[in-house]
Amino acid sequence: MVGLMKPLIKLVADEVLSPLLNKVVKPAGTKVAEGLWKASNTKIGEPIGTAISSAAPNLLPGFYGTPLEKAGAFSVGAVKTTAGVVYEQANPFALKLRKDQGISAIDQQVAKKTIKFLDSDKAKETSALLNQRKTLSSNITRAKNKGETEKVESLKQQLKILREPTKAEKDKIKNAGKEAQGQFSFAFMRNEMQGNPSPILREKFMEENYLGMGAFTKENFSTLSKERYWETENIPEMDKIMNTAYDRIRDAWGSDVRGNAQMYIKKTYASIASGNIGNEIGQSSLYNNVIRKIITDRKKPFKNVNEMRLILTRELNSGNKKYWIKPKGEELQPALIDFDIKDGALWYGDSYLSAAKELGGVNVQTALLPDATAIHYMSDVQDLLKMRMPAGEDGVSVTIPYIVNFLTPAKKSAEKTAYITAQKAASKERSGLFEAGVGDEIVGGMTPNQLALAREIAELKPDNLTAKEWAEYIAKLSVTGGVGYGVLNSLQER
What we know:
Elements: H1 6-25, H2 32-39, H3 45-55, H4 67-90, H5 92-101, H6 105-118, H7 121-145, H8 149-161, H9 167-174, H10 178-193, H11 199-204, H12 206-209, E1 210-215, H13 218-222, H14 229-232, H15 238-253, E2 262-266, H16 277-284, H17 286-298, H18 305-316, E3 324-325, E4 333-334, E5 340-342, E6 345-353, E7 361-368, E8 373-382, E9 395-398, E10 402-405, H19 414-430, H20 448-459, H21 467-477, H22 485-489
Parallel strand pairs: 2-9
Antiparallel strand pairs: 1-2, 3-4, 5-6, 6-7, 7-8, 8-9, 8-10
């Protein structure tokens, strides 16, 4: 927005929108989320509720920390969200971009911040060093396999003199895209849940990050076992296991998921920036860690599900601290796992904090079979500062069954190879959607397509405002006549 427009925007913000927001939000006192949810069901509150959810920052450091950190994060989030709403409602171009493309001011702000960092000299230097070292390491391995001893030594010397970025530098580059991918995922689901799909996110984001979406029904959920059919087709009672998983997910979230909820099927590993869900289940779920430890120490499967529950319960209650857990910020303690037997499997649930920024705290349900096969189901309710999405349906992020065996490493298969090849080919085809072109390297933990979209969103501008849109904006100012449509429209920052 050019400088000439700022006084008009400030006038609308100070004199029109701030008082309106106060009337909508303040009845709930400090319980901003509760007030917004109630207000979003009113005639005036619905557009305001939609605007508030669009202005919310997805990433709030400290939100899953100590009570004090959480309170601080919530306060900061409320302030930033309200400020964002005021800015967007006072800026006709930002408002049009959100209405036409589903991209809010905060969505674009996050994209711009990400691209600005990745295009900085420091980030480019770190990326170049990492890529050079990766290439040299690959060449060393290749030379070793060919028995080229002299070449191996030469390459090792080159690697030795090439500066290795610090851990902090590596992490900053690796995680640079996480906030952006989290914000875009939140924006994608936010628009879908409110019945206003984002054209750009549906076309260029959804298939890169999700396997699909639909109503969260038992019938739809059961089809997820067919995505990687070669992993599930020989599991006894798999259809029943899927139905039980669905019931347990609904029970775990309780009233947070109403009957008409939408389901978003997140890929277990679209990129580092999007989160490696499968790896997280194995590393971040404390209950899964301790169960796996008991089974690997035992070194053999179980005769049946009853023996499995008996032995696992005995070990967990033995007082052996090897099988205790240590939640973040707490002392070492016994793992109090509630087991349930159904469909020939031993069921248990757990939760952990996901690295996928749009998820946060997630639930994982596990069906454990006597042969040590674990079938994991991740889920998370999509909310806004721990409340239901204003002016929208409930939403649930889920994954297809993530299957591992605690005793036997996964084997390569022709089906898996073909599946991965098809996924890569589809991603390559989607790169044709970007007119500016797509590179080949992973930058900021993002795939080339994810990076291209971040650049596109950062530079996205709305079409010119129509006469009707200008009239609506001028009405907010209580201005009549004297201000020409053409003159005002020429002030848009292009």
